[in-house]
Amino acid sequence: MTIADIIHPDRVRVVADVQSKKRALERLSEILAEATPYLTATEIFTGLVAREKLGSTGIGDGVAIPHGRLKGLDECVGAMIRLPQGVDFEASDDRPVDMLFGLLVPQESTEAHLRILKALAEMFADEDCLKRLRAAEDDKALHALLLDYDPIAQAS
Question: Is 6 exposed, middle or buried, given 0-12, 13-18 or 19+ CB atoms closer than 10 A?
Fold first, then answer.
């Protein structure tokens, strides 16, 4: 399973109306709920907040990967938002977060969950990739960059 397998163009957005971690998680939950008709935005938000209570998913360099395992989900689903202005996310480096990738996986899915989280962390650790994602002009360009990311090509 790759990032391209879990992200749809409709779930990649530049979102301007966010000034807090809570609102960022709410917007991410709303977008993820569009892909999961059997889960509400409120259920998704509750799951993401529960995970955040265990420790911030802000991984540094302005990136957060809010994620959760949810009952009633039968496939992995992702969404990404870029914020024109970063928000405090209690990240490991205390930098404001402007890139969020939300990931939902089935409750019993652990191996796939970890592989996807690892791939996302590697992608966001790539300075050139992160720079291109931040420079993307719109939702469509942002999605295309996600699909084009090839960790093998990036390493050479």
Answer: buried
How far, in Å, CA of 109 to CA of 70, rounded? 9
CA-nearest of 12, 151, 148, 150 to 78 is 12
Residue 112 CA to residue 100 CA, distance in Å, equals 19
Known active-site residue 67: yes
pLDDT tens digit sequence for 19-34: 999 999 999 999 999 9
Q: Which of 8, 67, 113, 143 is catalytic?
A: 67
Q: What's the predicted TM-score (pTM) here?
A: 0.91
Query: Cα(114)–Cα(109) distance, rounded to whole angstroms?
Result: 9
Structure-block tokens of residue 108: 């019993």
Name which residue leads in pLDDT, 32 or 5: 32
Q: What are phi and psi of 45, to 5 degrees?
A: -60, -45
| In contact, 132 and 82? CB cutoff 8 Å | no
